[in-house]
Amino acid sequence: xxxxxxxxxxxxxxxxxxxxxxxxxxxxxxxxxxxxxxxxxxxxxxxxxxxxxxxxxxxxxxxxxxxxxxxxxxxxxxxxxxxxxxxxxxxxxxxxxxxxxxxxxxxxxxxxxxxxxxxxxxxxxxxxxxxxxxxxxxxxxxxxxxxxxxxxxxxxxxxxxxxxxxxxxxxxxxxxxxxxxxxxxxxxxxxxxxxxxxxxxxxxxxxxxxxxxxxxxxxxxxxxxxxxxxxxxxxxxxxxxxxxxxxxxxxxxxxxxxxxxxxxxxxxxxxxxxxxxxxxxxxxxxxxxxxxxxxxxxxxxxxxxxxxxxxxxxxxxxxxxxxxxxxxxxxxxxxxxxxxxxxxxxxxxxxxxxxxxxxxxxxxxxxxxxxxxxxxxxxxxxxxxxxxxxxxxxxxxxxxxxxxxxxxxxxxxxxxxxxxxxxxxxxxxxxxxxxxxxxxxxxxxxxxxxxxxxxxxxx
Length: 459
Hints:
By secondary structure, the chain is α/β, with parallel strands linked by helices. It has four domains: 1-36; 52-150, Glutaredoxin, CATH 3.40.30; 156-401, 3-Layer(aba) Sandwich (Rossmann fold), CATH 3.40.50; 418-459. The protein has helices spanning 2-35, 52-60, 80-94, 109-115, 140-151, 178-186, 220-231, 249-254, 388-399, 424-458, and strands at residues 65-70, 98-103, 122-127, 130-134, 158-160, 191-192, 208-212, 236-239, 257-263, 278-281, 283-284, 297-300, 303-307, 316-323, 328-329, 348-349, 352-360, 367-372. The protein has an eight-stranded mixed beta sheet. Helix 3 (80-94) links the parallel strand 1 (65-70) and strand 2 (98-103).
């Protein structure tokens, strides 16, 4: 009998020690979880963590960011402020000096009027004495674009040639570049199309000039102004759909530019549902535009582009984009059907380079030029394909001198909001689903565990 009491006492002591140890472990884990944050995202759209592009943008911003949030106080049923804090917490994990300050709109009506606050939850973002506003619902792409605009050092407009059938940066047709132009504006860049027939020269206040595949010849007077602009240090993006320079032959000669007669043939594109004139690239040159760039880009009827380093004009040339690793560039004299049949010893086997970057020392800031033997890769048809947009933005950032913003762009979320119909049945179903994961399932599992433990203890 004494042995049984002693044994029970030992069991009780062991159980008590185990319980104390278990509770201590829970306390320590909770304390460590509070001090150190680790997030593993398992959502389809990577909702809980930032994309690589957003992280690089945030890390490039050296000074503190101040967020002033005009939001109503949380009450028992609403967690409005908490949802805002949860969104910006992702950015705070990447940059610790993002400071948040809440202001109740009801308590500061005069301040709301001064700042032009129009909605509950609106945020005033301040960086380097520059401010922008953003309103809920918040999305990563929208907020990261806002940060890019605030951190952009170049405020000069981007000029683009117009009036000769070019792919227009504000156009809505499938072959225009309107989607790309909209993305440039979202990232804080201004667009302007100067009339070179009326102006004495290409405006010097522009950050760069875009020539996007003219369809008719550029007039001699305009062509001379463009050549003068480049000779005097202007930055240029020249997109070519063929080797017809459309009146800009002197500019091509000044850049020592060579463009192939035929477009690249890529039979591997048929595996992805395209034809031989569609080609892909996953190989890029060692250049700030394409360094660490690993996204696939897509091109249609791309032409080979080359230029030679010029000691006379001081150009340093870098290759950017290689396509058609399993294709070729037709060089044989026989055209027609033979174009789609590789002739060894006559045609040029892939990969084929279709983009070059030129730079040279010019004044204090230097000069930069990019030429791509394809304009359609930035068109409304292809801009959302693969990494086309990312590559295009990288090219622009390099040309305007914002090298620190060269990065992979944040992808838009596919499931920003959940829309629930306003009828009572839908509201009840949504309430049940949400609260089941929040309360009912955890409580049920706790009760089930207690029942199992109690039965085993009695046994």
